[in-house]
Design brief:
The protein is α+β, with helices and mostly antiparallel strands and about 775 residues long. About 45% of the residues lie in helices and about 15% in strands. The chain binds zinc ion. The site of zinc ion (ZN) has 4 residues, from helix 1 and helix 5.
Length: about 775
């Protein structure tokens, strides 16, 4: 089930986002402060979340249990049509923004859930670059504004404007309602009508999404983003090349743009990306298209040097011109088309297909099109494959990307301490405001601040709690799903087979034991997972390799994995290599896989450095966006071995070591390459490998034979396990990062309380 509303905004106060939070804070029938948090505790939902986009707000839920599904649907409908936000201003103050004054002598500040959330989001230069690009590429439309809320603008939103936004847009005449699944559709429609929709009259809702007229010529603009005070700003510019395209109604054109974005700008062998990388004037590039009424393509240059500014447009467009003239490599396009087909068949990573269909259908439905348009992709893909023999791809690039005047070049410069300075201004403004307040006003604000805190900390009444639907034990299925698993042996290795329906995609996972790897080599294991498939082999350079991999498979991934084995919680350490393919017979992918696992070369200094730099940028982004996760794992790494390993493989420790290695690359590159080679040779051998295969029953025998072909070409070596000692070493520490948000984590080792991990801890945590 899903309900969506068109919610175009006319400012960046984040009103659509704040409404999304507030409708979930109690309604006519469901009276607790946070019905959804209460619901989650006893629901079997497989999806439960609300999301604000740049032009819509959506409320999707999914469950496999009928009664649960009906409960969730009713809670959502009551929330969106009858929220308590009109009568209880505390909801707005809690979720949106408020003046905060703990006592009469304290400084006046702002607070609020969305306010704080967006301060975190805007700490990322990506988010700033994205927001600034939209603002300038679609200046006359709602897309010029940030629907999530620009932190320094959020406090301009008044309670009246907030309520007005809800009453204008949250009406059935402006709603799109979606049902999907094995259910009594007639019954559900009747319920929707009787319980909700029949209470409203049809009405004209003006929520039309404005269309941006094309520019008459390309524009060039600049903006600033903030780094922490004192941080080095050298070579940290962001450059964005973006174009706006036609209306989002032609599925074939949309898919074509996505395939071209992948093939020309994103993959390892993408010609524009390679041309930019060759210049050595930025640490990475990134390209994306956006789902909105008007399609757009944006290409980001990350951490660019000053000289990039005058060159990047010419490099991008000259490369495109050359491609138009000489023709785009059809293997590249085919590989990207394959990748898109995997993504569409797999549901783009959503475990609940219906949710994806809901979101996809809105790509045309929201703008007045047929909801099913975007779901009819099989035919469009077939047509695109056929059109590979024509010059329609080159013409698309010529018309839409090169000759298109609706184009923007954005130069985003870092300024150290920019946000600190803004925060100082905000504090000064607030101090001034406070100075003008009378004693009575101050006392009143202190009282309101305390009241809100008290309200937040007061448990819901028994009556309110009773309004939340709950599942009883009798509503639960007592049988657990039991996916088939057949185990067999193949020399010294184990094969697991899972014959189930998989939309004609075949999945293999090779798990290599690393119990014989020394503790000191953990860092190289992590680096290997970064480099494999992205460096040359004896037979292919990395560009050819990337194209070959995506022609034959839906991608091959390499991940170090840690598990705890009962009963003594012994730490298991493995490298997992996963691949998916549409070709069960194997074509040449088994040989390709063996080539990557046996014949990868670690001698291209420039390439290794380039990949490490890209990862460093990604890590910096992750640390600023998920500081809580990094802090948590950093803390746990002091308490147990498996968390320590996780920290060394992917946490702050890994990040710091990577950063150091990049800084001292010249001195250390020789030993780095030797260590990589040594760990690589030790990692991918037969013996104690677990091969896990998932596909339909019919394809299994052929797929198994193909997967074993790859394994059979690896040597079988003896592995001597090494014992890793670990000593607890609790520590209090602080780490400084460029972010508007701070994260604090405190933790304990529960074994100290003479207990072992079990389900009760999850219950307590909830
Ligand atoms: Zn939010």
């Amino acid at each position: 089930f899903g309900v969506a509303f068109r919610t175009p905004q006319n400012n960046s106060t984040g009103v659509p986002h704040i409404i999304e939070h507030c409708v979930l804070s109690g309604s006519r029938k469901y009276k607790t402060k946070e019905p959804f948090m209460n619901l989650v505790q006893s629901s079997l939902a497989t999806f439960l979340n609300a999301m604000t986009f740049s032009d819509k707000t959506i409320y999707p839920v999914a469950s496999r249990n009928d009664k649960d599904f009906r409960n969730l649907m009713d809670v959502y409908l009551d929330a969106v049509f009858y929220p308590n936000l009109y009568t209880d201003e505390r909801i707005f103050r809690q979720e949106g923004w408020r003046y905060q004054l703990e006592d009469a002598d304290a400084p006046l500040t702002y607070s609020g859930v969305v306010y704080n959330e967006m301060r975190g989001a805007f700490s990322s230069p990506f988010q700033v670059a994205y927001s600034e690009t939209n603002q300038r590429l679609f200046p006359d439309t709602h897309y010029a504004y940030n629907s999530g809320g620009e932190p320094y603008t959020i406090p301009e939103l008044s309670f009246e404007e907030f309520k007005d936004f809800h009453s204008r847009f949250y009406h059935p005449s402006n709603a799109k309602i979606f049902l999907y699944g094995d259910m009594d559709i007639e019954g559900q429609l009747k319920y929707l009508n009787d319980e909700y929709l029949s209470a409203f009259d049809a009405r004209e809702v003006d929520s039309e999404i404005a269309f941006q007229e094309a520019f008459s010529e390309p524009r060039e603009e600049s903006a600033l983003y903030s780094l922490a005070g004192g941080e080095d700003v050298t070579d940290k510019d962001y450059l964005v090349w973006s174009v706006a395209l036609n209306k989002y109604s032609d599925l074939k054109a949309n898919l074509m743009l996505e395939v071209l974005t992948d093939a020309l700008f994103s993959t390892q062998s993408a010609p524009v990306r390679l041309a930019l990388q060759q210049q050595d004037f930025c640490s990475d590039t990134n390209a994306f298209t956006d789902e909105k009424m008007q399609n757009m393509l944006a290409v980001f240059l990350i951490n660019a040097k000053p000289e990039a500014k005058t060159k990047y447009q010419a490099i991008i467009e000259d490369t495109l011109r050359k491609l138009v003239k000489e023709g785009i490599d059809r293997d590249h396009l085919t590989a990207s088309l394959n990748r898109m087909e995997y993504s569409l068949r797999e549901g783009g990573g959503y475990t609940t297909m219906g949710i994806l269909y809901f979101i996809k259908s809105l790509d045309s439905w929201l703008y007045g099109g047929d909801p099913l348009d975007q779901l009819r992709y099989t035919e469009a893909l077939a047509e695109l494959r056929e059109s590979l023999s024509t010059d329609s791809w080159e013409r698309f690039v010529e018309e839409k990307l090169i000759a298109n005047p609706h184009k923007l070049l954005l130069h985003l410069q870092p300024q150290a301490g920019l946000n600190e300075a803004k925060d100082q201004q905000v504090l000064a403004k607030l101090a001034e405001r406070k100075a003008q307040m009378s004693t009575a006003e101050i006392d009143d604000l202190v009282r309101r601040t305390r009241e809100l805190a008290e309200w937040q900390n007061t448990e819901d009444s028994a009556e309110a709690k009773a309004s939340i639907p709950r599942l009883g034990i009798a509503d639960l299925e007592t049988e657990l799903p039991d996916p088939p698993c057949l185990t067999s042996e193949e020399e010294d290795d184990i094969v697991l087979e899972h014959p189930i329906f998989t939309s004609q995609i075949h999945y293999a996972r090779y798990s290599f034991p690393l119990q014989h790897i020394a503790k000191e080599d953990l860092f190289y294991v992590s680096l290997l997972s970064l480099l494999l498939g992205s460096v040359d082999t004896d037979h292919h350079d990395y560009k050819q390799l990337s194209t070959a991999v995506f022609l034959e498979t839906g991608g091959i991934n390499y991940n170090p994995a840690i598990a705890l084995k009962e009963p003594d919680e012994k730490v298991l350490f493995r490298m997992e290599v996963t691949l998916k393919t549409l070709d069960a017979q194997g074509g040449t992918w088994p040989e390709l896989l063996t080539e990557i696992l046996r014949l990868s070369r670690f001698d291209d200094d420039k390439r290794i450095l380039e990949l490490m730099r890209m990862q460093l940028v990604g890590k910096e982004h992750d640390i600023s966006q998920q500081g809580d996760n990094f802090a948590r794992n950093r803390l746990l790494s002091r308490l147990n071995l498996s968390s320590w390993m996780q920290e060394e493989l992917a946490g702050v420790s890994y990040y710091l070591r990577l950063k150091q290695l990049i800084a001292d690359f010249e001195e250390n590159k020789q030993s780095l390459k030797e260590n990589l080679k040594r760990v690589y040779n030790a990692a991918f051998n037969r013996g104690e490998v677990i091969l896990s295969l998932t596909t339909d029953e019919e394809s299994m025998p052929t797929f198994r034979a193909a997967a074993l072909r790859a394994l059979s070409q690896l040597p079988n070596t003896e592995k001597v396990p090494v014992e890793w000692n670990f000593e607890e070493d609790p520590l209090n520490e602080g780490i400084q990062v460029s972010s508007n948000v701070q994260y604090v984590v405190k933790g304990f080792d529960f074994e100290k309380f003479k207990t072992v991990y079990d389900g009760r801890m999850n219950v307590l945590a909830a």
